[in-house]
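note to self: dont lose this again. the chain is below, predicted strucutre after it. 265 aa total, dont forget to put it in the shared folder this time
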Amino acid sequence: MHKPIILIKIGGSLITDKNKPFTVNEEALDIIASEVKKAVNMGKLLIIGHGAGSFAHVPAKKYQTHKGIINKQSYRGIAEVSDVAARLNRIVIKKFLKEKINAVSVSPLSSMVASEHKLSDIFTKSIELLLTQGLLPVVYGDQILDEKMGCTIFSTEKVLAYLGLALKAKDYRVEQIIQCGQTSGVYDADGKTIKEINGKNIGQYRQNLGGSGGTDVTGGMLHKVEETLLLAKQGIPGLIIDGIVHGTLSDAIGGKSVKGTKITA
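---
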């Protein structure tokens, strides 16, 4: 039986300043790297995914590449979006390596293909081998190719969800997905953390789930909750936490109770 795998999503708005293009939040990234190192030292099998933040969202919005090939400039858009998405990924990898974490970049553009904005093909063997060798795969929200539309954007939620389900179909134990953002979970209308969101109660909270600050073509908090809920219904529950608070992520990975919102079926 495979060891359980935990998926970790690091929000782009957490590790970058989404109101300042191409700007990294070094303090937040330092905290995340420190927390990931603690988890790796626990012997946990992790797959990290990070958002695009103030990097890829800028050219993605400029060229509207999440809509597919819409004009001649779309081809330039594919090239620019994939370039800056990979650029941020290299910064994250470099930070992990500095913390003595054996992190390896895995490009969604090279391992996933879509058809009408939905996954049509995925290659997971390299990630499986990385895990077997005790290495840390790091994926990210990316521009990928689409057989029907030409191109599309896969948010980090989508990348990790499709990856988790593909591994689950191969009998890997995908324990949960932990979402690290700037808030202690999802807030209700009074600004208090909602302890659990599921298929039965999401209706009462949906109107309070707005977008995200800055430039974002992937939908913000509502998108995050809905994508995580879809995943929970397929056997991979979620947890949304504050990624900046020291100890929260490593405690969550270790199975301890933390302040946040559980996403269950």
